[in-house]
Amino acid sequence: MTPLPVKLAPAWFRPRSFIAGLVAGLIALSWLGWSVSRLNYHRQFTRFHPEIAPEGSYYPTIAELCSIVRARCRPDQVLVIVGGNSIFYGVGQPAADMWTNRLQELLGDRYAVVNLAFRGAAADDGGALAAEVLRQEFPRQIYVANVGMMTCLDPSGSDPYRFMFWEAYFKGLLLPHPARSEWVRQRYAYSWTRIAPMVDVVGKVELDRALHFDDLWNYVSFDWINTVPSFYHPDFPGVFTPRDAYADTEPDFRSIPFDERYQPAALPVEMEIVRGATIPYYHRAAGGSWELDPRTRHDFEMMDRAAMPAPLRRRTLIVVSQNSPYYVDRLKPDERARDDAGYADSMAIWREAGYQAMTYPAGFTIDDYGDRTHLTVPGGHKLAVSVAAQVRSLAAGLGYGSAAPPKP
Q1: Which helix or strand (DSSP H or E) is residue 343 part of?
Q2: Is residue 383 situated within a structural domain?
Q3: Does residue 343 lie within any of the structural domains?
Q4: CA distance 201 to 349
Q5: Is the distance from CB of 148 to CB of 331 less than 8 angstroms?
Q6: Helix, strand or coil for residue 29?
Q7: Cα(56)–Cα(69) distance, rounded to whole angstroms?
């Protein structure tokens, strides 16, 4: 007896049709993702507030950042991208009163200021990457970011924002910079515990390069429906609300009582943080003054050079953030001398690495701060005045304010 044929698939299943449909669907989705990557759907953008940032489980793409910039800067304007951490983001400053709005007013229509700072980010995260990617498209540009005293940059970015660096780096969007490439190679090439995650990172970036799924998903979740739970909306129905429905609702420090902004119980911990910014790096010189460890100076300068290519460094203004006088004035004279040395040496290191650098001018008071580091609206306005002066000076030095073409 001849055995009956074994059916390996139901009669309705046609492998060729399935594969053809799958390929056609992927091509269609890839085209849609490519299309929306050039679309600015952040129509009411102020800054990357928590609902549209990694802390809210939203991960902006490089194309997304660039589209925001293109929508806000005309070809005849000087582009000023603001990066850095929560201080430059404007924690404690409502969207209508954040310090970068005041910076735009002071600079005038010749400039376009775009705030791409993220809370907890480093100076070479999102905003710096957008500036570098847009280097040829917007040759008249200045990048402004803040850092803490005695800090340096990781050339591959910082967590949780490193995903933006990997996207720009492995998609070939960044300028050639051998020192940065060597840093990446040395840091991730010699240990399997590092290689394995990198295989996942590179694989995802390469797939996204072909399929553009990150841009497509961000567009869908921003404008139509979101399905990713976040710290702010872990459950139904908020988890499905598109991100565009959430406004920038940053509170105003001025509405918070002084004792809540400067809690007495937190004073010992905050003072340890202020002192700890310099203690590990300084020793007594022969004459009794404070001296920065030479190895620290060398390492910081080397990493800062590796973090950004020279064409971006010379257009970058680094602002070394200061602590509130509420805490600094409690330092002993000897501690204050070390603190002052820390700011002076920090700015010197940044300048030696090829950046422009400044810190806050004299005259900031306790009322200009909402806590140890973040500025109130009046403090932000003071910051804007000093940054605007530096931006104008830097623009003039780069030839942006003259008839001469921009320097390459």
Answers
A1: helix 333-352
A2: yes
A3: yes
A4: 32
A5: no
A6: helix
A7: 22
Tally Cβ neighbours within 10 Å of residue 64: 25
Report the C-alpha gap between 208 and 30 in whole angstroms. 9
Q: Which amino acid is present at 207?
A: L
Residue-level pLDDT at 236: 81
Residues 6+ apart with CB under 8 A from 169: 156, 184
CA distance 87 to 24: 47
Q: Which pTM does this prediction carry?
A: 0.92
> Can you tell me the distance from the alpha carbon of 98 to that of 117, in angstroms, rounded to the nearest whole number?
12
Contacts of 49 (CB under 8 A, 6+ apart): 95, 246, 248, 249, 250
- Give CA–CA dist 307/151, Å, rounded: 13
Are 282 and 290 in contact, with CB atoms under 8 Å apart?
yes
Residue 170 structural domain: 40-397
pLDDT, block means (10 residues), the chain with 408 residues:
61 67 71 83 96 96 97 96 98 98 97 98 97 96 97 95 95 96 82 67 85 91 91 86 95 95 95 96 92 96 97 97 97 97 98 98 95 98 97 96 48
Single-letter residue type at 103? L
Could you give the CA distance from residue 355 to residue 116 in angstroms, rounded to a whole number? 19
Number of folded domains that form the chain: 1
Give φ, ψ of 137 to 5 degrees: -70, -35
The CA–CA distances, whole Å, from 6 to 1, 47, 372 equal 15, 61, 74
The verdict on residue 145 lying in a domain is: yes
> String of b and e for 18-52 (b: at least 16 CB within 10 Å)?
eeeeeeeeeeeebebbeebbeeebbeebbbbbbbb
CA distance 244 to 389: 35
Q: With 0-12 CB in 10 A as exposed, 13-18 as middle and 19+ as buried, what is 314?
A: middle
Residue 218: the pLDDT is 94
- The Cα–Cα gap between 33 and 37 comes to 6
In order, the DSSP letters of 149-175 are TT----TT--TTSHHHHHHHHHTT-SP
User: 253 in helix, strand or coil?
Assistant: helix
β pairing state of 78-82 and 111-115? parallel
CA–CA separation, 207 and 200 (whole Å): 11
Residue 334 lies in a domain: yes
